[in-house]
Every structure is written in structure tokens, then in C-alpha cells.
Amino acid sequence: MSKEPVAVVGIGQTKHVAARRDVSIAGLVREAARRALDDAELDWADIDAVVIGKAPDFFEGVMMPELYLADALGAVGKPMLRVHTAGSVGGSTALVAANLVAARVHGTVLTLAFEKQSESNAMWGLSLPIPFQQPLLAGAGGFFAPHVRAYMRRSGAPDTVGSLVAYKNRRNALKNPYAHLHEHDITLEKVQASPMLWDPIRYSETCPSSDGACAMVLTDRAGAARSPRPPAWMHGGAMRSEPTLFAGKDAVSPQAGKDCAADVYRQAGIADPRREIDAVEMYVPFSWYEPMWLENLGFADEGEGWKLTESGVTELDGDLPVDMSGGVLSTNPIGASGMIRFAEAALQVRGQAGEHQVEGARRVLGHAYGGGSQFFAMWLVGSEPPAS
Amino acid sequence: MQPLRDVAVVAFAHTGHLRTADELSEVEMLMPVLHEVLDRTGLKTADIDFTCSGSCDYLAGRAFSFTLALDGVGAWPPISESHVEMDGAWALYEAWTKILTGDADTALVYSYGKSSPGSVRDVLTRQLDPYYVAPLWPDSVALAALQAQALIDTGATDEPALAAVAARSRNSETNTAAQQDYVVRPLRTGDCPPVGDGAAAVVLAAGDRARDLCARPAWIRGIDHRIEAHGLGVRDLTDSPSARLAAEKAGAFERPVDTAELHAPFSSQEVVLRKALRLDDDVRINPSGGALAANPVMAAGLIRIGEAAARIHRGESDRALAHATSGPCLQQNLVAVLEGDPR
Question: A124 — contact with chain B (CB < 8 Å)?
Fold first, then answer.
């Protein structure tokens, strides 16, 4: 008994923007799904099942919206699953869909994640007061800023590293036609002069609030053989979770993130991620999370991640490009952000990332996290089928 | 199609029916159930390869409500874990596929819901098409009443027959049920589910591991789920093609079952499901009382699978069908076929 290899043969995204007032939620998801089908040169009838993910339903004000979206996604008469694992959900959704193929339950699966944040207000959607429970206050930045400060203190990183990440990612976004923010006049000085929101995180070092959807068509070996374009092959995938708060939790470099990466590397036969992985699409909602995750994912020793960022290693033309698409810092439809990381990783190994393509990318990591740095989902995709 | 591996339900636990769990948080409601289901197998959290849960933020009234439940699981060291914003029956489905891949041999599946803090009839209207239907706030009982009336109009049932379903589910007298007040015509109090809180958990295991953990595992011979269109106007509410297709794919029609646990929150929906699932009078329907006796939203479907499995564990059934539903008027349906080893 062995798992069926899983291939990505279709990828579709919407142009991410602050508000898609021209389409309904159904219209938004259908646009991404249709583009993924077109990329795979397939039609609705070729899809065996639909796996959809999004972050909290309060973000649109629709409870379990997959019920309403069944028609728009061609799911009528088919199995439809709805995943929700906080910010990591886009990644988790792709992994749940991949398992359906790996388990040989289905041959070809459409997976999609979305958020239409303009329908509601994400910050207050996250901040509903609950009796007898600690409030999250206003949004996610306030929760994460102290962890960033702890990292700076622990690593001795200079104050400027965060702005370097933001400047890089916003420039990368200019090469990605689907990215939300296209700041043509961006300069490092502008990033560093932007208002302080949650010390030490400045306005230009935070993610935007976006409307957007991302879809992928996942299939088995037979489906990959019929693919009109090169498939991306899944070499490893894993999820890990740990509680939000507990004595001894390392909020800077959570154990669940380390374990998740180790599981993916084991499956993919990666011994030295820094040398063997060509690029990373990393979930960086606040600039400083790039150096933090570089360490958590094993690309740098503890306390050393910021040196990779500072020396330009993570630039688009660097030795280990990170967030070639512009990342979450340039596009954040929350529920879709994890799947965009997974899809952008697949685009790279398919050689279809256009202007933000990393030349010769053969193995690329897609990464997502959520909750209070407690839910992790990752996959490693390659240009060649997995060995076993 | 024959699944890659044999997977079984090896343990089940659930809360008693709670009208309100005001004094308990979701975690406090869930904890005893998790302990009980693990105790039945002798497993500890660290022995579980994969954990999957189902719950709904709209019942909890807060975003990411499932994150707190992780405290009840004891997710340290970190665990391989996932969550569906669906009834726990679909969490079980995800866990089943995970075990099929060979990445896990055991799985803990749980779900919970507290309907009591809000008006669940109103809350469920938020599931409807947000642009054209939800603004009208058609509540879940009103929609089920439309379905029941359509069913009566076809001659498939009548009010006395519905009263008999209600009475059987609650061990009461048909005459009493038939004289209760209407909630929404033609549905009387007894035709509608009670509002309540609850939690449930099952343990899944593969092959020999299942035999080690349970004297008579309830093998999942097939499991499948299907969804229908959302718009009520484009559906035939007197039929359930999605339940029938799921049952067919799960192999339910290959041989008769002796027991069926149906997730029919309204008496009229049992009539629809019996027809769609081709269950004749020889089949014991809802020996647990079904959703008409206790309906903790998000857990009630998983409880059907658990109750069916528990009857196989106890030797009271050899082949059982378990069903779960979601959405207005049975929009989405899951069917599992469970079997015990021959005695």
C-alpha cells in the first residue's frame, strides 16, 4: 500500500484588491475556480470533489458559506468539504484536498480558499467581546507586536530589518499582476517613515485587507499525464497545532512550526533545507516574521535569520528568495493567504510565475500559520515527481 | 471502490442531552467526553496520530472558537490536527481519509455545539444566500415546514404519520404528539428538534490496531457525502438525491442494513430519508432517539455515527447505516456504512 502521488495541474487567482464591489461572494470564488480549470484545460464535470477553506465566517457575515457556494463552484451532486484552521486555513485546505487524491478516494479535486473582507470588518470580526475571556483587543497586530519585540531582543537584530522585508516584498509585488498593493513609488525611506502602528511594527510593515480567492486543481498520476502544462508535484505536506497560551510556549519560534517543517522535510528527503530548497513562499503578515520564520523553518540558526534578510539572501535575485509574489505583506484575503503561498510555490516549480519567476526553481516551500502562532500548514512542491 | 485500508470506529462518547450548559464553557463541556472516549481505548493524547474536530463560530459567537478546544485536547507536544466548520461527521470523514493515506493509524474526532445562548432558529438563517434569502430571515423551522407541507401534498405522509415518528423518537404516545401546538404548520412541537448543547467524540483506528483497541470494531465499509443546490426553489424538497447518491457510493444498497441512525432534525425529514435510503420497515430506525430526542447542532451528525458504531460494539447490530445532514432542508448529506465482524 502506498500513497498516490499528488500533482497541481491548475492554478487560478483573482486580482486581489481592497473591495471587489463588482461581484458577489459567489462571483469571486467562481472567477478563481474558472481560472484554475482553464489553466488545467478541464471543466466542472472533470472535478470529483470540492474542498473549500476560509477564515472566520464573521469576516463576511455568512455562516458556513460553502452551503450557499455549492452552486457557484459546480459542487452540486459532489462531495464538498469546508476547512477552517484560522490563518493557516488556505494551506490546510490544500492539504485536506491533497489527501483525498493521495488516499485514492478521488482522482481530481478542486480546492479553493477565499476572503471577501470588504463585506465586513476583519478587525472587529476578530474582536467580539466574550464574557470571562481575555479580549484580543483590536486586531492581530497588537497580539504579535510583543513577540516581534521579543525576537529583536533575543537576536540583537538591528531595528531596520523589518523595513527591509517590507521594501523587498512591496517591490516583488510590482512583478505580480495579482498582488493587491502595487506601490510604484515605494522607497525604503517611505517604509521607515510610515506611522508606528503597534511598536515596533510600522504601517508599511503590515498586511493589507483584501478581497480575493485562490484555487488549485489537484490530481493523481493519470491526471498529471494529461496535463497540458507542467505539473507541480507534492513532495511533502504536514499540519501541526499547539495551544494558544501555556507556560513555556515559545511565541517567537513555536515548536509546532519546527515539528511541521521537520515532518515535511522528512517526507521530501530534505536534509539541509538551506541548500536543497530553492525558494520559499512564507506567511509573513508583519515584516519581522520573515527572519523569525527563517529560523523556525531551519533556514538559519537561532538568532541568525535577520542576517539572511539584511544581506539580501531573500531578495528575488538572492540565494534563497522569500515571498517572490510580494507575500501576505502585499496581499491578504485572510482565508486565501495560505493557499496563495501554496499556489505561488507551485507556480515557481512549474516555471509559470512570470516576472517574479525564480530561474531554475525546482523545489519550493509553501508555508502558512494562524491563530496565536499555533496552527501550521506547509507543503514542499517540486518540478519532478516524488522519488517513491 | 474498495478503500485502501480497513478503518473502524473503536470508541464513542458523548454528553447527555443538555438543555443549557450555561455553567460550562465549550472546553469544560468537551473535556469529560474526550477523557471518556480515550479511557475506553486506553489511549493517551500522545498515542493519537491525527485529531480532527467540527464546530461553528456562529454558535459560539466568536471567531476561532475551536482554538480554545485545543486546550481540552492537550495539544502539547504539538499534534497533527485539523478542523472543519461542519458537523463532526465530516471531521470523521477527513480523519478517515488521513488514515487511508497511511500517515495515521489512529484518529481522535470530536465536535461540540452550544445552541442555547442564542436563538438557533435565527442563527441558522445566517447560512442562507446572503444577498437574496438571508435578509428575509426565514428560520429553520419555517423552511422545514415548507418541506413537510410539500411532502404532505404529494401524499407521502400526513400529520398523524409525522406524530408517530415524533412519538417513537421520544418514547411517547402518538395521540399526545398529534395534539401538541403547531410551531409552524404543519409541524407541531414534537416534530421539531429540542434546542440543546452537547459534545461527542469517537476514536478511529486502522486494521489490527482497531482489533487491539476494541473487542468488536465497527468497520467503516463505505462513507461518502454529497451536496445539493442551495436555492430551495430549484430543489425537489420531497426527495433527497444527495443522500441517495452518498448511500450508493458508500455501498449501502449492496446488502440490507439492520439499523439506521438518521440525522433528521424534523419528523418529516425522516420520511424523506427513509425513502431516499430505501429503508424498509424491518430496519430499526434511530434506536437512540435521533435528533428529535437530542440535537446538539454540529455534534448531532457525529453522534449518529457514534450511536450506530456503539450498537455494533455491543453486538446489537451487524450492519448499520449512519447519516448526517447539514444546511437547510437536508441540503448536504453524509452516509456511512458500518459493520461488525461475523459472530
Answer: no
